[in-house]
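Progress note, project year one: complex with xanthosine-5'-monophosphate.
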Amino acid sequence: MLDAGGQYCHLIARRVRELGVYAEVMPSETPADKLQDRRGIIISGGPASVYEPGSPTVDPEIFSLGVPVLGICYGLQLMAHLIPGGKVTKGIKGEYGLANLKVTEHDKLFDNFQAVSEVWMSHRDRVGEVPEDFVVTATTETCPIAAMANDWRKLYGIQFHPEVVHTQGGKIILGNFLFSIAGCEQDWEPTRHLEELEDEIRCTARGRNVFFFASGGVDSTVAFSLCLKALGKERVHAAYVDTGLMREGETEFVREVFTKMAGDSFEVVDAKNEFLSKLSGVVEPEAKRKIIGEEFVITQQRVLESGRFLDGKWILGQGTIYPDTIESGGTAKAEVIKTHHNRVAGIQTLIEEGRLIEPLAQFYKDEVRQVGRAIGLPDDLLDRHPFPGPGLAIRCLSTAKAEESRKVDSGYVLPVLSVGVQGDSRTYRSTLALEQYTEEAFATATELINQLTDVNRVVALVRGVAPLSDFKSHVSAIDETRLARLRDCDSIVRKLSYDSGFEERIWQFPVVLLPCGVEGKPDSVVLRPIDSVDGMTAKAVPMPAALLEEMTTLLMKVPGIAAVFFDLTNKPPATIEWE
Ligand code: XMP
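Model obtained:
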């Protein structure tokens, strides 16, 4: 997978792996000689235009290697741009959403594919002329060259996205490319490689022991137990840092699971005071993330220096998984949207010194779960929703000044900024609050955001102690009172969504504290249940009315809570977390 900068790159690689073929993401500019032994090359989509200076490109030699190439979206345009005779037309009006694709030339890529089907399009530029010796193989009403091919040279390009679920038969296209064109075998299955994985751990450790900071999350727990299996109890150690930023009951849960697995090779490190005092008064989310990341490293240093882990015998183990790298700009072209806490400076130094082991770095989340099951970890641990390392700190929003809400046609703009993602870039904007929660409002959220330049999210008021016109932000940061407030709300939500079975229907359910309320009740709580396959994109999910009602009633009783809001926004344009 050559990464031309799209969030979709990992999704394509995942789909390829789901089809049983190993795929790796590499920078788009990877020189052709490094790719000549590959079975096939896929060039991903991306937000740029091939005509923009500095936009991602590929080594044109890859088209002469004899290795089959599939260009998707921007990848197709790169092929048309770089292979003689082709031309890309600058788009004036984009084509976003579903389109009817007509296959005009049934080549190998379109084997067993319907003559007319619905495909997902997301592009502005388009191919105006195909390169020499290429034929047009499919069209849509607005895109005359929706696919092109040179069967003889095994070069294929498609404008639509076969990796998204909305494209009918997307998997057929990818399968045709992988199996009948590139001759791949269906031989990738993560659990088939457990022994190799253990060998790799032993090899990377090179006689050294592995130290983990356990978070209780799926990834670090699976990574830890793999190391435990590969190296034995004497050679691994896990410390759980109690940052004071975790949810109700979290520390107890982690203690129980790890003590059962590792006995004395597990310890809890109390760093509550340190984290809280460093975060005091901090508002900006990236600053919070940096502080938390660095405090993790300082704590780690302290634990190491406490004696046992200081010598060169120990290296650091982490549960980093494959997509963790993309939203931090880890692959070549993705813009930094958020700093991942695994990737702050201190950890970077350890990587440079080679004192790091990340046994799951090549796996996607569902593959990690498969590995976890194969090594006997319990389902209630593996099926837990993801929870971010920086914990409740990022969901506890803050503001530096007190401001009034602003009336607009559709509702009120709340004076609190939070992070979103649009067109592959980070945004930091306000939230639009609708005065009433209805299921119909979900459909209009993105449109409302497009109408307002300073907004990246839409919430709806479920219940409040006063009309929205009375709501103000207050000067606020992370402190014990607000954290306890958020922890109480989160605990209510988690219990009810677990008991009602709603939890199983969604991917994640962040609960957020907004510094927006009225005199005496300064904060509000936001419910953010979402559905997703991998966290890269997400859909806001409505809740059963009775459950929402019950939850709201309990949440409104939490001291200091002025309102319950429901987040209606998908990712993009928002992110899953609020911060
Ligand atoms: P966003 O908010 O970027 O979240 O849409 C995508 C997914 O990533 C999780 N997340 C994190 N996980 N450390 C983690 O281990 C982090 O710093 C972090 N930040 C976000 C988030 O919960 C969601 O599942």
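Residues 327, 338, 340-341, 386, 388-390, 508, 535, 571, 575-577 surround xanthosine-5'-monophosphate (CB under 6 Å).
Residues 68 and 154 are 5 Å apart (CA to CA).
No further modelling is planned for this target in the current period.
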